[in-house]
Amino acid sequence: MKIGIDKLGFYAPHLYLDMTKLADSRNVDPDKFTIGIGQDKMAVPPMTQDAVTLAANAALEIVDETDKEAIDFVIFGTETGVDSSKSAAVYVHELLGLNPYARAIEVKQACYGATAGIQMAKGHIMMNPDSKVLVLGSDIARYGLNTSGEATQGAGAVALLISADPHIMALEDQSVYFTSDIMDFWRPVYSDKAFADGKLSNEQYIAFFSNVWEQYKAKTGMELNDFAAMCYHLPYTKMGYKALKTILDDGTDDVQERLLANYKQSTEYNRDVGNIYTGSLYLSLLSLLEQTDDLKAGDRIGMYSYGSGAVGEFFTGLLQPGYQEHLYVEQHHRLFSSRTEITVPEYETIFEETLPTDGSTVELDIDRDPADICLTGMADDKRQYVNKLK
Ligand code: HMG
């Protein structure tokens, strides 16, 4: 039985910051951000968007009435969830109006959460071929104003419908995963900003990639020439390129050229959004599928997932016949073209805004947020959400 990605949705908040303007205000050469790091724009979430609403908005575009009945498992990958107890999946389940006979859970392992969710979903569908699983990857990446991680922030979510006989990509069975306890990036429960050892994190990202890639080749007998494209977790777009460069020489000249061209396509969306942590790899896949026209059914895509702390996995998928017809290209182009640029001071103000932590009531102005699903405020220590379409 083929199991894999049937639909792939995406959402980013409607505000963004131009990286050259951030560079100017931080007295940094803009080329460092746009070339050295490889980011052009950074999505900035207003107070009315959090991990729950970003994910629910991403899911809204893909989930139809039939899916709502068939989905019996919602798996929410996030490292910036809104509650230490209740899962973000339960909120999304309600906001979308899904079948109540469903499981809804949250999974966490830094940027690896959504990949864990996809692999769990695959096992679930193997046992229950008629069911569908909604896997969400949603995060707001925050390092702090004037930090070296600032240029690698971002916000957004992906929503993946995992099913039997998928329309976009069938997941292959063999994958290699690896865990090792390292402190390259972490966020203690008392902090709303992440801590990172930038240099160590870059080294470990590459070391984990080399490890799982070598194991994968030894286990499967596959080689670089068997791949049409490689997608990477993209904390910033230069990072995946550094990993790809370490293996490129193994391919023929034609394969090298193709992988490089497809790598570029796989980074276009991420360049304009920034790091969305657990959704980043799937935003990269979306960017590849929606930008490239030289891929065809049967092409094998390599997927490298990395979540600091750390867990890495290399797995693969085969593109399905007619996959292009199941993408939401126009909606995504519209989403990007309708965003509003904000100034650095506006971004700094939004960055410092917080919700009350003393149980007081606050009502947020959702009229300024074009998203269908918004956070409307807080009351009695409870987040209040609205689906404007309901
Ligand atoms: P930094 O110290 O600001 O930058 O940190 P740098 O000095 O290392 O420079 C960055 C690049 O810009 C270098 O290129 C420079 O040469 C180049 P590289 O040597 O790396 O190829 N550069 C220029 N290029 C053109 N023109 C110029 C110029 N100046 C310099 N004028 C760092 C950068 C990414 C480390 C920092 O932003 C950071 O700490 N970010 C957060 C951590 C991170 O993203 N780590 C990535 C791997 S870990 C991961 O992916 C997991 C993660 O997503 C979290 C999770 O799993 O949940 C982060």
Automatic annotation (TrEMBL):
Alphabetized CDD domains for the sequence: init_cond_enzymes (cd00827)
Domain Hydroxymethylglutaryl-coenzyme A synthase C-terminal: 263-325
Domain called Hydroxymethylglutaryl-coenzyme A synthase N-terminal: residue spans: 2-165
Enzyme Commission (EC) number: 2.3.3.10
Entries under InterPro entries matching the protein: HMG_CoA_synt_C_dom, HMG_CoA_synth_N, HMG_CoA_synthase_prok, Thiolase-like
Keyword line: Acyltransferase, Transferase
Family: Belongs to the thiolase-like superfamily. HMG-CoA synthase family.
Protein's UniProt name: Hydroxymethylglutaryl-CoA synthase
Lineage: Bacteria, Bacillati, Bacillota, Bacilli, Bacillales
